[in-house]
Amino acid sequence: MIIHLNELSFEKFGVGDEKVYKIVCDLLEVPLYVFVFDYVKRKDAAEDIVAETLFKLWVNRAKMKGPLHIQRFAYFTARNMAIDLLKQAAHEKTGPAGSMGDLGQLEDLIDETRTTRELEEAEISFRLAMKEMEALVHQLPPKLRQVFHLRFIDGMNVADIARLVGTAHSTVYNQCRAACEKIRKGLEEKGLKDFL
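Now predict its structure.
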């Protein structure tokens, strides 16, 4: 979903706009948690790693070269922190003077984690899902597409959207829900429900 940051939003992110940063965090938080939990198998550790990753993203925001760079930075940072945690856990089990057999246990732990190739494959799958989602957004009726874009891509709040399009708050909520439902059904039909 980061891919949908428009140029202006990306520029705002780079200069420290907290509203755009919150949108980025909202888009990344759950997928990153699932990704990290797959490594560490502990809820508290996964939550800590995601929080630290999002903090590091904020600290390094000016260095980001584009929306895809934001996504890659977040996933690689989270993965590296998860591997460091696994190494630390293995070190605590074996002690500083662990045997060569203990080194093999560490290698086994690291082998269980995702490889760079798996990460690249996940990124390719993610890109394909995003292309499908873009196509589904373009297929929405004009009013639903407009409200969806304003709410989820531009990050406007419901009150501002209602004023802009001249409708009630409840109508904006209903249109957002209807747009999301159509997109969800379209992704399910294409076998991409894992990206919801």
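The CA atoms of residues 2 and 24 lie 7 Å apart.
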